[in-house]
Amino acid sequence: MRFLAHFVLAAAIALVIGFGLSYFALSDGRLFGALRVGPWTAWPAVGMPAPDPYTRAYMARNGALQLGQSEGLQFVATSDSEGKPLDRRCRYRIDGSTPVATFWTLAATASDGINIARPGGPASIQSARIARANDGATVVYVAKRLSPRNWLEIAGDGPFSLVLTLYDTAAVLSGFAGGVDALPAILREACS
Asked: For position 151, what pLDDT does the model report?
């Protein structure tokens, strides 16, 4: 009887640890193929012809159309630079520069991947239509209320994600983390 109790306990612990590590690998991925730069996360192996098993599982779980390896790289942020979850009640300032890319877009999405930009407004901020500082840095505001300079107006309530897509970027071609030294900071300014 004692052997059976130990066996059941060992099997339960093994299942909890196995499923827990699998969930961690697919959601966080820091140790399993995800590239993290500040609050931004990307899976560089997504566009490869034969991605690793963790990247394949991430793609199956995510279910979104992915860019090919030579097309670009997509970074997603669900929290600000201080680690607080992004909330639509707050105004955020995305401040800094992006890695070298021919073109980039910044969009806001709900947890199900649906774009939350104001209906009738621009769906994303694009690098071709942005005002830059003299040093090439950009400042973009993401908020429900009017903000200065480059503004991505969002709608609704609840948490959201920011998706920064770099098209035709040297960061992909120069290796796993090459060329991605820094991404813009996400700074929470005010909440209503």
From this structure: 92
